[in-house]
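Re: How this chain folds, sequence and tokenised backbone to follow
How to read it: Take the token row as a discrete description of the fold.
Start of record: The labelled sequence and token lines come straight after this line.
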Amino acid sequence: MSLREPLVTSRLSLTPLVPSDLDELFALFSDPETWLHLPAGRHTNPSESMWIIREAMTSRTQCGFGQWAVRIAEDAGFPGVTAGQFVGIGGLTLADVGVWNLGYRFTPASWGHGLAGELARASMICAAAVDPGIPVTARILSNNPASSTVARRAGLEQVWSGPTVTPAPPGTRGEIYADRDISSEQLEWLKVRT
């Protein structure tokens, strides 16, 4: 399995995130509807979205895997969406503390159809192919229960819940999920970034 090449699941075409994806990525990350759980995270400048692309490219160079642009696959039979249509981004990035971080963001029109779960399952398979010894984690805000559901269905369990450092709405807690035990150093690193 070459993780630098496109990957096709039953309904998704996953291609390495590259600069030519900037317009679609910025449209996604600047859409207020995709930031209901964290309004302060919304992108207001394409340079913020380009940073995500650069991080994905760096991750692929350093460890062979990074976030994908997510499009509907040929013959997916997805209602109301054409083959090749951009519906989001996601995948894994390797954190400095030696854990994979699972992340994803999809267009509102594609919500509720299990696409994030399909992406998460593909990401878990790829993580095992790259290095099965590296834990997979996800950092989620408590006001985003759909993401928690995706993480659980992908095989991650909640290992921490507490105050968040992000500028989230009042009462929001940070949650960390992992597919196995993680070290106290890894947990502390994730907590200050949740």
Q: What stands out?
A: Strands lie at 7-8, 12-16, 68-72, 86-94, 100-106, 136-141, 157-163, 173-178.
